[in-house]
Design brief:
Strand content: 5-15%
Order of helices and strands: HHHHHHHHHEHEEEHEHHEEH
Function: S-adenosyl-L-methionine-dependent methyltransferase that specifically methylates the N(1) position of an adenine present in helix 65 in 25S rRNA.
EC number: 2.1.1.-
Shape: globular
Enzyme class: transferase
Number of helices: 14
Pfam family, one: Bmt2
Helix content: 25-40%
Family: Belongs to the BMT2 family.
Radius of gyration: 21 Å
Bound molecules: S-adenosylmethionine
Length: 339
């Protein structure tokens, strides 16, 4: 019998559960994921510097942004086209300039910034770019590399004997129907959604959580939402806040319901604008009580119990802008602001 990740008789590498997927080495996995997040961050920085980051812009999609930036400067198109369709070699000079952007950026003339934006948006848009990113994320979840994060969620549920009889779960940012949340047999059904499903993995609905229709009755709400490494993927603090606010629309109110969140550890322990206490208190204002927390080497896991009656409109206003909580040269700026 073939084991996961072993070579088949034809020499092709077999991925989880027999699917044929390209294997990516752990170092490359990390590089791809890091670069993707780096490009997302630089895109936001450029949009801000080019004054496209007002609240109305948040509603705009990439096509609209492209039209607006092109009107500002045709350099955007030059940046977009510079690499043509050659996906192998990156433009190292531009990549270097992008790294130094925070130091040099504001002095650059706007058309140069538009050029960089064109380059970045093409890189991000490229289907094979996102495909590779998702594949890298999926490889990161491989059992040989520690497994997917729902493993710890299910351990907590079993250890604490949470009653989830006849229950349903929603997995946001799902990359595989074989994650432990789906295979553990605890849930009657697991709805899996992701913005992209380029690998056409069966059983994952291609859907933006922010566009998912809001259920009107508890029968259509979920007992548990799992949101692993998704909030950090959402580009701006206010969009992250909107996502946090929206979770409760999908959680049952007639019996205990749960929210499981996983974040890269530096979002919580090395940000100027976020700490463990701040995150916990922000969620408390939204009606969530933290019942479990675990820090691993690189990520941290939260399990919250939701209670609609604990929502406090007054206190959640405290989180509508970012507060500098700490400072230091090597800290990041991860933050969440509630709309
Ligand atoms: C880093 S991957 C994490 C995947 C997996 N959950 C894990 O823990 O490794 C982030 C995923 O979140 C998805 N995502 C981001 N925003 C989303 C949204 N608004 N709705 C649905 N999926 C979203 C992305 O498409 C991406 O596949």
């Amino acid at each position: 019998m073939l084991k996961r990740g072993k070579k088949s008789i034809t020499g092709k590498t077999i991925g989880p559960h027999g699917s044929q997927i390209k294997r990516i080495k752990p170092q490359s996995t990390r590089k791809i994921i890091r670069r993707y997040h780096f490009l997302l961050q630089r895109k936001q920085l450029l949009l801000r510097w080019l004054n496209f980051q007002d609240t109305s812009t948040l509603e705009r999609d990439d096509n609209e942004i492209m039209e607006l930036v092109t009107l500002k400067s045709p350099e955007f198109i030059k940046g977009w086209k510079i690499r043509g369709d050659s996906l192998k070699s990156r433009d190292l000079k531009i990549e270097e300039q992008l790294v130094k952007l925070p130091q040099s950026g504001k002095q650059n003339d706007p058309s140069q910034l538009c050029f960089y934006l064109g380059y970045i948006m093409k890189e991000l848009k490229d289907e094979s770019g996102i495909n590779l990113y998702q594949e890298a994320s999926r490889m990161g979840q491989d059992a040989n590399r520690g497994g997917d994060s729902s493993k710890i969620l299910i351990r907590w549920i079993k250890e604490n004997e949470y009653d989830l009889t006849d229950s349903t779960a929603l997995e946001i940012g799902s990359l595989s129907r074989y994650n432990v949340i789906s295979t553990c047999g605890i849930f009657n059904s697991v709805t899996r959604i992701d913005l992209n499903n380029y690998n056409d993995e069966d059983g994952i609905i291609q859907q933006d959580f922010m566009e998912r229709p809001i259920p009107k009755t508890d029968n259509n709400r979920f007992d548990l939402i799992s949101c692993s490494l998704v909030l950090n993927f959402v580009p701006t603090p206010i969009e992250r806040g909107s996502m946090c606010l929206r979770f409760s629309e999908f959680l049952r109110r007639d019996r205990p319901s749960y929210l499981f969140i996983v974040l890269p550890l530096p979002c919580i322990n090395n940000s100027r604008y976020m700490t463990l206490d701040y995150f916990t208190e922000m969620f408390a204002s939204l009606g969530y009580k933290r019942i479990k927390y675990h820090e691993a080497k690189k990520v941290c896991y939260f399990l919250f119990l939701f209670n609609e009656d604990d929502k406090s409109n007054e206190s959640f206003k405290n989180y509508s802008r970012k507060h500098k909580l700490k400072d230091g040269p090597s800290m990041n700026n991860f933050s969440i602001t509630l709309p």
